[in-house]
Amino acid sequence: MKATDVALAIVDTYRGALCVSSLGTATSALRAASDDGPHFYLGAAMGSALAAAMGVAEAVPDRLVIALLGDGELLMGAGALWSVSAYRPGNLIAVVLSDGVYSITGGQQLSTQTRFAAVAEALGGIAGARVETEAELRTALRELGRPSLIEAELSERAWPGPSPFVDPARVRLAFAANVATGGSAR
Amino acid sequence: MPQPPPLAWQVVIADTLTAHGVTVAAYVPDTRLQPILSRLADNDVCLRSLSREEECVGYAAGQRIAGRRPVVLMQSSGLGNALNAIGSLAVPYRLGLPIVVSMRGTLGEANPSQVPLGRAASSLLGTLGIQSFSVRNAAAAEQVTAGVTTLAFEAGECAAVILEAELGGGREGN
């Protein structure tokens, strides 16, 4: 499973979802999978994407919100997991691209096992799952209670393609239109 | 522990934020902020106590890009924790956020560890292009708070209300 496979499973399963992607691989993969759809792509602010997704989720409670996160990203902003556990937005799914490296900075190894799904479960109020195949991922996306955290183990590291350097103004306007139109905008 | 009654400026700031459409407050706790937060809650503003100031900015950015009107509140010592999210998310995406900073490390500070960040707070914001406006007495609270929310929500610029030591309400009872 590659990062783009994970992003494709997300947009295939929930076409109307509002997605938030962290910098680097996650943003590139979501751009590739959604044909540069009207999502909230972060171009920097490493460690802030889960918190941003929680903000979107609570601002738009009638839409499903999916955060696509790098594992190094979430490690940097892991405190947000405790906040998700505290406030438990029922429309939020977090999917972690788990490959054990900081891809955007050159592929350096994370120094530790992340075990985000187990941590989420231990905190309470978050359904956690670790998946290794696309079939397992699609099942988890559909069937886990929410909020949920799905740790997707990547078996192949491949750069998705599109640049992670997004135009903030374009992202903001497209995402705002997506929110305002209830998902029918493109 | 019983809460002290709010000071006039704390009530004015909360009510002004509410009058300008603020619906959610993301914060890291602080003695002087607590009466503002209690008043915001009385005004039906949703409170979100988060784990770190950077997370508050991320959360508020998500609210703002979705069209809502959040406020971020933090102590000056936490501003350093928030700078990356402010500088590489809120500012470039023009997600105008009103930020309320409760100052430590300035007039009357007894803790030397609070001084460097307190002394630098407005300069740090200014270096990122964020205007900050001091409130030193209750009479200025409404004008400054209203002006900062207008800069944030209408002009799309992050802007800060600086709660100076002279306002009182701190844990030393000054």
Describe the overall structure.
The complex is a heterodimer of chains A (186) and B (174). Chain A is α/β, with parallel strands linked by helices and 186 residues long. Chain A has helices spanning 3-13, 25-33, 49-59, 71-76, 79-87, 116-123, 134-143, 168-180; strands at 18-21, 40-41, 65-70, 92-98, 101-102, 108-109, 127-131, 148-153. In chain A, strand 1, helix 2 (25-33) and strand 2 form a beta-alpha-beta unit. The radius of gyration of chain A is 15 Å and the shape is globular. Chain B is of the alpha/beta class. Chain B is 45% helix and 17% strand. In chain B, helix 6 (138-153) links the parallel strand 5 (131-135) and strand 6. The mean pLDDT of chain B is 95.
Strand order of the largest sheet of chain B: 2-1-3-4-6-5
- Subunit organisation of the chains: heterodimer
- Uncertain regions spanning at least 5 consecutive residues of chain A: none
Indicate the radius of gyration of chain A in whole angstroms: 15 Å
State the helical fraction of chain A.
40-55%
Please give a quick description of this structure.
The complex is a heterodimer of chains A (186) and B (174). With 186 residues, chain A is of the alpha/beta class.
Key structural traits:
heterodimer, A: 186 residues, alpha/beta, Rossmann fold, six-stranded parallel sheet, two-stranded antiparallel ribbon, 8 helices, B: alpha/beta
Mind sketching the topology for me?
The complex is a heterodimer of chains A (186) and B (174).
Chain A lengths: L2 H11 L4 E4 L3 H9 L6 E2 L7 H11 L5 E6 H6 L2 H9 L4 E7 L2 E2 L5 E2 L6 H8 L3 E5 L2 H10 L4 E6 L14 H13 L6
Parallel strand pairs in A: 1-2, 1-3, 3-4, 4-8, 7-8
Antiparallel strand pairs in A: 5-6
Helix pairs in contact in A: 1-2, 1-7
Chain B lengths: L7 H12 L4 E4 L6 H9 L3 E4 L3 H13 L4 E6 H15 L7 E5 L12 H13 L3 E5 L2 H16 L5 E5 L11
Parallel strand pairs in B: 1-2, 1-3, 3-4, 4-6, 5-6
